[in-house]
Backbone:
């Protein structure tokens, strides 16, 4: 065992957390009093880090793959903070109980109290209103009868699930994915993204995120001390007056490159996009990928809606070997198979990136739920024979088109989605009564919060105010919009449409 020592020969001062990271054949272990490395063979190579303003050296076995690779991607090897880091999310935390959902739930609670429990039609949150297909449910039931499925799974995931994912995605990637070194299973896609940020970010490192954004990105980046750098998607100029394609929301590449600094470590891409519904074009992704290669930036490609696309869909990791070398692809079993409560996510990427995600995941939650991993494996194995992927996509597109008929009927413009199951609708034409009494904490918020409150209280329809997907500087872009989720039963969609027709008297 070779200890980390300072230049004066001392061991690092406490307090240190107890932890262990697998780096190739080397294991870096931390206790409260020292850090050490257990590695076979002789000592070579050095990784340094400043701790409490002193330089400490970790001497590693030559079995470690490449010191150059480690330095290039700057994995966060020494997470030394004792206790929980304060997360300063500010404006950007959409689901905070003091923010968006608290207001939506308050209005819904009042409506349900007056009209009966469950009276509000929830078109806001993106969870499914129906069960997974029978072959997926049966797989879950069968898994519960297996002894090994009721115990801990390997930290990187059950071998059967990793292989099923590798087999399912290899045709897309144009190569055989190694399930043991290029796939890791996580407790939902969100925890997978947190593991990626924890694995690579040091305090002060910057991550570029496109506005609008999934709110969890922000807290996940800030937990390890990262700094979020925002680059907006620009809506079409006529999006408030007529229905346009979600693809018309555009990214200014010059603006994007201007935000890159020597501290930029990662960039988050979400395609198909929540909440816009945009599927980034091949040309857009190529330009983004080329920038990341130029500046050696890791791409975290959030593709949890990757089976729900209605226009040609490109995965960043398929664009070139150089881009693939920098890309971590995030997927969600819950989104794929209508079971968001299962919390089964996965990341696919080159070994030199995946191993640090796996190491962080091990420290965050050790392993993920065994029977649901097994069931998800069966789901991937059997999806093709049930024609599930094609039927799922066709079914969701049909729901989207059917629901959006009500906006055409009312003459309200919307951003026609290219993928996913969310739609943004513009309500600039809807005039709220001037004497309508909003609670002070709603009256002080942007107009979309007032719209959301009004829709719940007067129509019994819950939708999400999308300014919470933006920073304050750009929230004005969507103050007249609301986001709706169409992943509901058809009868729920019809009930929602009927209630929304009550808007006619408010449209000018």
Residues:
């Amino acid at each position: 065992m070779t200890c980390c020592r300072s230049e004066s020969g001392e061991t690092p001062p406490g307090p240190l957390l107890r932890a262990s990271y697998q780096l190739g054949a080397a294991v870096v272990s931390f206790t409260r009093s020292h850090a050490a490395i257990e590695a076979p063979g002789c000592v070579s190579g050095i990784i340094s880090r400043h701790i409490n303003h002193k330089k400490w050296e970790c001497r590693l076995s030559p079995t470690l793959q490449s010191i150059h690779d480690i330095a290039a991607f700057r994995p966060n090897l020494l997470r030394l903070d004792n206790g929980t880091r304060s997360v300063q999310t500010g404006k950007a935390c959409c689901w905070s109980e003091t923010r968006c959902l608290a207001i939506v739930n308050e209005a819904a609670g009042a409506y349900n109290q007056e009209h009966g429990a469950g009276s509000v039609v929830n078109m806001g949150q993106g969870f499914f209103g129906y069960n997974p297909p029978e072959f997926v449910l049966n797989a879950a039931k069968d898994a519960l009868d297996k002894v090994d499925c009721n115990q801990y799974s390997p930290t990187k995931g059950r071998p059967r699930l990793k292989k099923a994912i590798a087999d399912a995605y290899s045709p897309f990637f144009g190569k055989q994915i190694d399930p043991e070194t290029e796939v890791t299973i996580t407790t939902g896609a969100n925890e997978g993204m947190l593991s990626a940020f924890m694995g690579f970010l040091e305090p002060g490192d910057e991550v570029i995120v496109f506005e609008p954004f999934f709110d969890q990105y922000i807290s996940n980046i800030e937990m390890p001390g990262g700094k979020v750098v925002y680059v907006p998607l620009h809506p079409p100029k006529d999006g408030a007056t007529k229905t346009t394609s979600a693809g018309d929301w555009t990214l200014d590449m010059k603006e994007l490159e201007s935000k890159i600094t020597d501290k930029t470590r990662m960039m988050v891409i979400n395609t198909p996009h929540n909440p816009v519904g945009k599927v980034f074009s091949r040309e857009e992704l190529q330009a983004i990928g080329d920038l990341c290669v130029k500046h050696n930036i890791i791409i975290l490609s959030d593709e949890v809606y990757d089976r729900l696309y209605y226009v040609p869909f490109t995965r960043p990791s398929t664009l070139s070997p150089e881009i693939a070398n920098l890309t971590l692809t995030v997927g969600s079993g819950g989104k794929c198979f209508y079971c968001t409560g299962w919390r089964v996510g996965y990341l696919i990427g080159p070994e030199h990136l995946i191993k640090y995600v796996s190491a962080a995941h091990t420290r965050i939650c050790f392993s993920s739920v065994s029977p649901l991993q097994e069931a998800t494996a069966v789901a991937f194995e059997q999806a093709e024979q049930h024609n599930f992927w094609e039927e799922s996509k066709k079914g969701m597109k049909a729901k989207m088109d059917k629901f959006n008929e009500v906006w055409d009927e009312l003459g309200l413009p919307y951003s026609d989605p290219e993928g996913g199951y969310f739609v943004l609708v513009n309500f600039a034409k809807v005039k709220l009564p001037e004497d309508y009494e909003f609670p002070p904490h709603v009256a002080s918020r942007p107009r979309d919060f007032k719209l959301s409150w009004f829709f719940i209280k007067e129509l019994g329809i819950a939708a999400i105010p999308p300014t919470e997907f933006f920073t304050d500087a750009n929230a004005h872009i969507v103050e007249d919009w609301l986001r709706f989720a169409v992943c509901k039963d058809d009868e729920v969609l019809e009930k929602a449409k009927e209630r929304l027709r009550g808007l006619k008297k408010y449209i000018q």
Q: What stands out?
A: The chain has a mean pLDDT of 84. The first strand starts at residue 2 and ends at 3.
